[in-house]
Amino acid sequence: MTQMHWKPASPSLFAPILALVLALASGAVAASLPPAVDGQPLPTLAPMIDRVTPAVVNINTKTRVQVRDPFFDDPIFRRFFNIPNQPRERVQQSLGSGVIVDADRGYVLTNNHVTQGADDIDVTLHDNRTVKARVIGSDPDTDLTVLQIPAEGL
Question: Which of 43, 54, 89, 138 could covalently link to 145 via disulfide, CB atoms 3.0 to 4.6 Å apart?
Answer without folding.
Answer: 138
